[in-house]
Amino acid sequence: MFEDAELGHKMSKEDFDRELPALREKLLEAQFALLESKRFPVLLLINGVDGAGKGETVNALHEWLDPRHVQSVAFGAPSDEERDRPEMWRFWRALPPKGKIGIFFGNWYTAPLVRRVLGESRKVELEQSLSTIEHFERMLTDEGVLLLKFWFHLSKKTQKQKLEELSGNKRTRWRVTPQDWSNASRYDEFRAVCDRVLRETSTGNAPWIVIDGSDDRYRTMAVGKTLLSALERRLAAAPGSHERSQAKPAPISVRDEKGTNVLRALDLGKVLAKKDYGDRLEKLQGKLNQLSRHRRFADKSLVCVFEGPDAGGKGGAIRRVTRSLDARVYRVIPVAAPTEEERAQPYLWRFWRHVPRKGHAVIFDRSWYGRVLVERVESFCSEEDWRRAYAEINDFEEQLVQSGSVLCKFWLQVSEEEQLRRFQERKQTGFKQFKITDEDWRNREKWGAYERAACDMIDQCSTEIAPWTLVAANDKYSARVHVLQTLCDRLESALGD
Amino acid sequence: MFEDAELGHKMSKEDFDRELPALREKLLEAQFALLESKRFPVLLLINGVDGAGKGETVNALHEWLDPRHVQSVAFGAPSDEERDRPEMWRFWRALPPKGKIGIFFGNWYTAPLVRRVLGESRKVELEQSLSTIEHFERMLTDEGVLLLKFWFHLSKKTQKQKLEELSGNKRTRWRVTPQDWSNASRYDEFRAVCDRVLRETSTGNAPWIVIDGSDDRYRTMAVGKTLLSALERRLAAAPGSHERSQAKPAPISVRDEKGTNVLRALDLGKVLAKKDYGDRLEKLQGKLNQLSRHRRFADKSLVCVFEGPDAGGKGGAIRRVTRSLDARVYRVIPVAAPTEEERAQPYLWRFWRHVPRKGHAVIFDRSWYGRVLVERVESFCSEEDWRRAYAEINDFEEQLVQSGSVLCKFWLQVSEEEQLRRFQERKQTGFKQFKITDEDWRNREKWGAYERAACDMIDQCSTEIAPWTLVAANDKYSARVHVLQTLCDRLESALGD
Fold it and tell me: Which CA distances in Å does B350 have to B99, B353, B364, B407?
């Protein structure tokens, strides 16, 4: 992996000075075309050994490009707001929007590498991190992000020389920290781990670009040219034609469209008497309230998702949940059309931004499942896009759960007849009229398509850590009790009581 | 202030049950009208004595309203990201957008009150905080925020009873903390300080609404009705007709339009020879780089603003600054049209969101001064709006500086003739063509109006803590050196070297 980068590539001053003006002009042109088109974001990852000129090279890029549309971020120790959420949250929040260039130092490779080299993690943990990274990067590139992963390399000998040179000069001494020397003493281990990591994470859409860092001019020019050619290639290609991962085709369930399915198998005839409902509701709400005040909840969070046909009772169920919680603890996110800032980001960004801190709850009224439901049925996205969404959603949910979120997903199912009855009722009731629109009537006509999409979704995304709870909702009372009971059970088991 | 609220107002269960259904229906209707119109945001402040039912009342509001469009935030200890910025930053970031309702517990009144009661701040510091608050609230209401400030009160005796009741019941015991008892023991001091604070901060547009908290039903109904009537009143009024503060008319400078002014008085003939430029630039860039790495810079931040006529050389000057800094330290914000999310917030919100953390720099290419420049000249906002902006901007900048930002504002002035020369040059030069648009030519025709606006801006906003630096920019070399020299001087003096 690193053999070529240890050969000591050089570039003469003459060659550099001759090539630079044209490169700069072309880079600016490409950057401007990117900005105007707003077709995709560009993300550069900057990694490698200490002393290999990472900072200098990025400074040169900032100089060559229009710095108003480039943002470099160095991720140091996470802030407390970041520590309270999944590890990848800090990267999501810093992603560049379409049209802009982001440069990440100290990115998602840093912690897994350092932990492994220092012996703080086992091989299997490194493998897990790499798998998370691979999925994340696949999502980015599938979403159209132009991802360039630079690895700045130096041979052991050259690194020692560089560090000594820097330490020897009064003006650059500050740049060499004791940590750098300590890292250098582990060069061989570091090289071995990195070699392996780079091999495993060099994928078709996001290969590693290994740069010999020993010569300033060679290194900078190499990075500049790589960026330029990647930008030009993508800009010349037809919009949306970027290479996508070989979608692992989601396993397909063969279903008899006339026969039964998980939704039809629900017993929608269940009824709970009003009196029993009142008693059970009160008890469950009291319990949920207690659980949300449990001392161990300060280390957890709650994420609820409500999906299901229109008029399935999502709003009513949500109100029974929020009523049990203190207003300071929860937030309800009604999912509507994405804003302009959200449209400039990968699909899941607008949900990641609402991931709660520890001790808090977020309730999504409709959710990221829109991709595989309404967007699929209405052809708002391509088949490729919704097919890959299942895996992306599972990754997202896995990260939520791993970071301490209790994730509860409710599908509130009503029959076609019951939906019609509720629509008509809403038309009658003054203050409920706003709840019914032409779109609701149109969606009814696609009942079958929605049902099929829902069944696929449940098949694909009802995982062990984040199961779907299917709620028979023709009877509102029993549906609400079912939701609250499930929430209490899930929280109780997560809090270990 | 509190006399009425200590009378022990009560509401019978019969009255409550009779009035509630209509109130709820009307509240929902008003909330929906607000959401549809997206005309203004609603912000409720929740303050008062412990045990007076603040949490319960807000929980009731969440129950009565559609909780999907209400967000309650309890501000506890600030996060590290918040501590690194001006105190008000955490409130700015949580402001509800137009159409939504925000409820703030532990808001901007909490810290000043608590500090004063505990004797941690002096009277004069409390006065300063109140003045900041008054300006902030005036800005909010002038921007159209419907601001309702609720104070929940209890007499000393009733508070003691309530706390004892809560402590005595196994289910509510957790709600009374040792801090609550300790606060209760200072009831008289607390009441006296609060009485004064409420009097001083009860303004025409944002009066305090003092609620007797002793009876659940009375209290909740009173808050619900107050909210409803405020909402209905504002919704019924013509858009934009909300009461505005009596604009303190900014002092007006009488200027002879043909005579001199601060811009015309600049010596635009200054020229710096290329050789001298090279030397001085290199030295200044080296110095700026060192200053940005100064250990005390970790406790400061740098905010730069660049304004001036088109083709005044802002971009070039910014690049000379960024070239001196490490890419990981700074961010350039090109100010363009606000996004949808930004338009749903008060004017300054889109600048507050970019306020840097300590140890970082943000460079604004055009800025919040757009309000009193382009928006004034092109009538993008009302005269009232830009007139009040001077004071709002001064408040914003004062908070930046108080929190440790070094704020440098540069006006790069070129003559009409030099601007024309540069426009024509740009038309010739291939890769600079994109920098010139029809709008640039149109703006030239309004040279006089822009000049007048700039002179007013400098008069109003060149404060001692945040002076404008007027840069003669016909000669790019001397302009850049002027900018860098100023930056170095300001930073040096702030870092105390």
Answer: 18, 6, 12, 17
So where are chain B's domains?
Answer: 4-236, 274-495
The CATH number that domain A274-495 falls under is: 3.40.50.300
Report the alpha-carbon distance of residue A129 to residue B453 in Å, rounded: 56
- Alpha carbon distance A102, A458 (integer Å): 36
ipTM of the complex as predicted:
0.87
* Chain B touched by A407 (CB under 8 Å): no
Q: How far apart are CA A177 and CA A77, in angstroms?
A: 17
Would you call B208 helix, strand, or coil by DSSP? strand
Give the distance, in angstroms, between the CA of residue A1 and the centroid of all CA atoms in the same chain. Answer: 29
CB of A282 less than 8 A from some CB of B: no
Cα–Cα distance for residue pair A278/A272, rounded to 1 Å? 10
Distance from CA of B260 to the nearest CA of A (A): 35
pTM: 0.91
| CB < 8 Å to A25, chain B | 431
| Tokens of residue A157, six digits | 């000998």
Rounded to whole angstroms, how far apart are CA atoms B138 and A164?
59
The superfamily in CATH containing domain B4-236 is P-loop containing nucleotide triphosphate hydrolases (3.40.50.300)
What DSSP state is assigned to residue B355?
Answer: P
Interface contact A293-B174, CB threshold 8 A:
yes
Instruction: Judge whether B266 and B474 are in contact, CB under 8 Å.
Output: no
Q: Can you tell me which residue has the tokens 């300001």?
A: B490
Do B280 and B481 meet the contact criterion of CB atoms below 8 Å apart?
Answer: yes
CA–CA gap between residue A305 and residue A298 (Å, rounded): 21
How far lies A96's CA from each of A44, A73, A93, A219, A342, in Å? 10, 10, 9, 25, 11
Among A328, A483, A477, which Cα is nearest to A408's? A483
Q: Which residue in B59, B334, B431 is closest to A28 by CB distance?
A: B431
Measured torsion, CA atoms of residues A423, A427, A428, A430, in degrees rounded to the nearest 10: 120
Distance between CA atoms of B385 and B366, rounded to whole angstroms?
19
Query: Would you give the distance in Å from CA A242 to the centre of its chain?
Result: 20
Element housing B217 (H / E): helix B216-236
Same fold across A4-236 and A274-495? yes
* Rounded distance between C-alpha atoms, residue A140 and residue A392, angstroms: 10
Burial A248-261 (b: 16+ CB within 10 A, else e): eebeeeeeeeeeeb
DSSP secondary structure of B420-448: HHHHHHHHHSGGGGGG--HHHHHHHHTHH
CA distance A177 to A193: 22
| Three-state SS at A362 | strand
Residues 433-462 of A with CB under 8 A from B: 434
Contacts of B44 (CB under 8 A, 6+ apart): B58, B61, B101, B102, B103, B104, B148, B149, B150, B227
**pLDDT digit of tens for each residue in chain A (497 aa)?**
788 888 889 999 999 999 999 999 999 999 999 999 999 999 999 999 999 999 999 999 999 999 999 999 999 899 999 999 999 999 999 999 999 999 999 899 999 999 999 999 999 999 999 999 999 999 999 999 999 999 999 999 999 999 998 888 887 787 788 888 888 899 999 999 999 999 999 988 899 999 999 999 999 999 999 999 999 999 999 887 777 776 565 666 667 777 889 999 999 998 999 999 999 999 999 999 999 999 999 999 999 999 999 999 999 999 999 999 999 999 999 998 999 999 999 999 999 999 999 999 999 999 999 999 999 999 999 998 999 999 999 999 999 999 999 999 999 999 999 999 999 888 877 556 566 677 777 888 899 999 999 999 999 999 999 999 999 999 999 999 999 999 999 999 999 85
Q: Which residue is closest to B318 within chain A, CA to CA?
A: A67
